[in-house]
Automatic annotation (TrEMBL):
One Pfam family linked to the record: STB6_N
GO CC terms: Sin3-type complex
Coiled-coil regions, chain positions: 355-396
Phylogenetic classification of the source organism: Eukaryota, Fungi, Fungi incertae sedis, Mucoromycota, Glomeromycotina
The UniProt record lists the keyword Coiled coil: yes
Keywords from the named record: Coiled coil
InterPro entries in alphabetical order: STB2/STB2 (IPR038919), STB6_N (IPR059025)
Name of the protein in question: 5836_t:CDS:1
Highest taxon, organism lineage: Eukaryota
All residue ranges annotated as the STB6-like N-terminal domain in the record: 8-150
Length: 501
């Protein structure tokens, strides 16, 4: 069945379809809408084959089944005068939809392409997209697919569930990745770097550098293995860590050699790829090569290695005539200033980077030790100040306790004198009433003292360890002492008056 190429069309892969529509001159009506009564499935094999779309839409009629879609408009008037100028990518998209035997279904938003799962090939694996949001669940699908294709998960059916702890540990251990790096970021970036390297070597399509370990990526890895790593045995996992390390080492080695030969190749070939390729092109032009390629084929790699060795070791390939004997004078001349250059050696770039990293860590640790020592000194000074403040507070409270004992002894003496006055028969009747009042007053004072002692304990726990709190306690005690002296003086004056009478 041949579909009409013009009209309003509804697709569930919003991001890729919107990008395709903008490049082909189609109009985007809605970037995100919800369509009820449909379910969405991802087809694993289609995603690995890099098809224009990798999902199928199934009509269920259930209002609870919803998918998120975008709507584009392909106007017939835009391409009708020149039908041969119809965008090639859109033509491929519709041709694939026709080959997959999808059927058109009209909706309130436009025409959507639906599939009947009962007639869908059983050889293709489908994964139900929860909530029908392809853009949200595609990163999880890509992560799980990569983990399975690099032998970090079992051979069970693919799902959209998060990876297990066992899968995480296997990946971190297999590729020596620090566990503090998020798993999804580590997996996707590793695949992206490998795809970037394949772009530099074989001209891997740059728009495929998205972190999905597709069939085309594996095909390029096999080509690299056959061309540059033929000594490798048959690998069950084409994304083998040793092969990945080798492909990284090759690109970094070529970059360092071109930099030594004074070509502008940038600092990082995985990030600044265009500068690196321009450096390779400049080298090709300098060798007067007939055809200029934008990739690192075997001929270019061998030529770079040959030029580098000739420049680095100008006399390395020459045969030297061996002398039969040396005199002491000749040996001394050989050990002069010129011999220093002959004893220099080339440090491996990886060893140098490790050494530089260790030196940086050493400087950081030295600064950290200095900061810790200064912090420890501050804490020691604070501890000494707190100890002195505590000792001073303890001495002041001790003197306060001694003063309170003196007041209690004085109270005891007053009580004895009152008893003597009470024993006198002549003054008994007169002082009986006054003694009762004084005893009530003394009871109130005793209760007040008990409350004060309790408050002192509370204040001791709440007030800060400072001289101000101790002064406050002394002021209270001075007030109590004055009151007590007033009471005792009244008693002594009354006793003296009675004696005179």
């Amino acid at each position: 069945m041949v579909f009409n190429r013009y009209g309003r069309f509804v697709f569930s892969e919003r991001e890729s379809i919107i990008t395709l529509a903008q490049k082909c001159g189609a109009q985007v009506i809605f970037k995100e809408e919800i369509l009820e009564g449909y379910q969405l499935y991802i087809v694993e094999q289609w995603a690995c084959d890099r098809r224009p779309y990798n999902t199928v839409t199934v009509f269920t009629g259930e209002p609870t089944h919803k998918i998120k879609v975008c709507v584009i408009l392909i106007e017939e008037e835009r391409f009708q005068p020149y039908p041969e100028k119809y965008p090639e990518k859109l033509e491929i998209l519709f041709s694939d939809l026709e080959e997959d035997k999808t059927r058109l279904k009209d909706t309130t938003l436009g025409t959507i392409f639906v599939t009947n799962l009962s007639s869908f090939p059983s050889s293709l694996s489908t994964i139900l997209v929860t909530e029908g949001d392809y853009n949200v669940y595609y990163p999880q699908f890509r992560l799980n697919l990569n983990l399975r294709r690099i032998s970090c998960s079992g051979k069970t059916a693919l799902s959209l569930k998060p990876p297990t702890e066992l899968q995480k540990q296997k990946f971190f251990q297999l590729y020596s990745v620090p566990e503090k790096i998020p798993l999804e970021f580590a997996v996707i970036q590793l695949v992206k770097y490998v795809q970037t390297t394949l772009y530099l070597i074989f001209g891997f399509p740059q728009h495929f550098v998205d972190g999905l370990l597709c069939n085309f990526t594996e095909s390029c890895l096999r080509e690299f293995k056959n061309e540059h790593a033929s000594n490798f045995e048959n690998l069950d996992n084409i994304f083998d860590p040793n092969l990945v390390a080798m492909i990284f080492k090759m690109v970094l080695s070529i970059r360092n050699k071109l930099h030594y030969l004074n070509y502008q190749v940038g600092k990082d070939p995985f990030i600044d790829t265009e500068t690196f390729i321009n450096g390779v092109i400049s080298f090709q032009k300098s060798t007067k090569r007939d055809s200029i390629s934008h990739k690192l084929d075997s001929e270019i790699v061998n030529k770079i290695n040959e030029t580098y060795n000739r420049s680095r070791y100008p006399d390395g390939l020459k045969m030297r005539k061996r002398s039969k004997s040396f005199t002491n004078a000749e040996l001394a001349r050989k050990q002069g200033a010129c011999s220093l250059y002959s004893r220099t050696f080339e440090i491996d770039i990886q060893t140098y980077m490790v050494y530089k990293n260790l030196k940086g860590r050493e400087a950081t640790l030295e600064d950290l030790i200095k900061n810790l020592k200064s912090t420890a000194k501050k804490y020691d000074d604070q501890i000494e100040q707190l100890s002195n403040a505590y000792e001073e507070r303890y001495q002041k409270f001790k003197s306060t306790e001694e003063f309170s004992l003196k007041i209690l002894s004085k109270q005891k003496k007053v009580t004895e004198s009152v008893k003597q006055i009470y024993s006198d028969a002549t003054a008994r009747g007169k002082l009986n009433y006054e003694l009762i009042l004084l005893e009530d007053k003394l009871k109130e004072i005793d209760e007040f003292i008990e409350q004060f002692c309790f408050k002192v304990q509370v204040m001791e726990s709440k007030l800060p360890h400072s001289s101000r709190s101790v002064k406050a306690l002394f002021n209270v005690w001075n007030y109590l002492q004055d009151q007590w002296n007033t009471i005792t003086s009244r008693l002594y004056n009354r006793k003296s008056d009675e004696d005179k009478e």
